[in-house]
Amino acid sequence: MVRLLNAESLTLQQFKDEACPPYAILSHRWAEDPSTEVVYDDMAKFEDIRHSSVWKKAKSAAKIVAACQTVLELGFVYLWVDTVCIKQDNPMELSTAINSMYRLYHDAEVCIVYLYDYPTAEVQTLSQSDWFTRGWTLQELVAPQVVKFFDKNWDYIGKTGDLAAELTHRTRVHKKYWTSNAPVNYAGVSERMSWMAGRKTTVPEDIAYCMLGLFGVNMPLLYGEGKERAFLRLQEEIMKYSADHSLFAWEDDSHQCCGTGLLAPSPECFRSTGHYRHRSDQRNNRPYQMTNKGIAIDLPLVHLEENDFVGALNCHDEEAKSVGLYLRKVSGNHYCRVRPEKISQLTQAPPRQLQSIYVNKKDPLLIAGMIDRAKDGGQ
User: Fold this and answer.
1) pLDDT in tens, 181-211
2) Is residue 206 within 8 Å of 135, Cβ to Cβ?
3) Quick check: helix, strand or coil at residue 375?
């Protein structure tokens, strides 16, 4: 079922998925105070809200009315707006909506982006808009087939193809995804992760949840688990469906003095590693998986000194050179990642022989103890 706003009557209507009419979809920045946004329960008294000069939701109502007018001018009758088409206080409905939101944007005939702060004295160029700093707006930018931008006065700015150069410079999303209709899933895992670097969400866990559709995965929403745990779960879900080793190609200079695991603590770790690509020649296409001993993975190991190695990933840089991770043996075939602030650039082809090893997922306290034991001679 999908709930849509009728732009002519300003009323909500519900449709079965197979009977859903063509619709436009709105992408916008929520107000700093979410309580000033018109939500589902307000629609019963929408006329009172929109004509009130003192009601705190009047500004939000004006935005919805203007969006409806724009949609009608574009030739559509129905509009999907997250604030009113989802019962925000219904956990099950909210979870369903978030897990299917990428599809909602992808299936829309057109996405209209409203930039409330452009142009102003503080925001003089399109890319300076606060809209580009939000986590949720990433999928709203790349999922739809057609995206049209409107300024604070609802004057048309242009569509993604017209603005490709500026959008690419601001978002790190390659212009080919707007100018040649290249599917977003052509982008590697690290590339898509890099698009999220620098963005933020009001609710911490949403930094992971807003990326579900970007990777075509689903998972339960556990608000309260914290953003790092939510992001780890996201990566675990990606592992179930993707063999792309660039998931592990990230850098984090905040853990230079201790070991870490294969999974990143934040999308920010991919900011400068989006150019790594999974090898298409399938030289190492063995599956990897999560176990109670860590991530079980087969990698060629290049010995450096004592217990230190480089584990060569099945991916490469822009010059087609192999890259790897610095690993330290802590016991038997159990390793942890060290020097996470740097990806190793291999100057020679890695060994062809693969080693079956376990690498910690992420547990800094446990890993620190294991490293100490390794230094004391543990094998």
Assistant:
1) 788 989 999 999 999 999 999 999 999 999 9
2) yes
3) helix
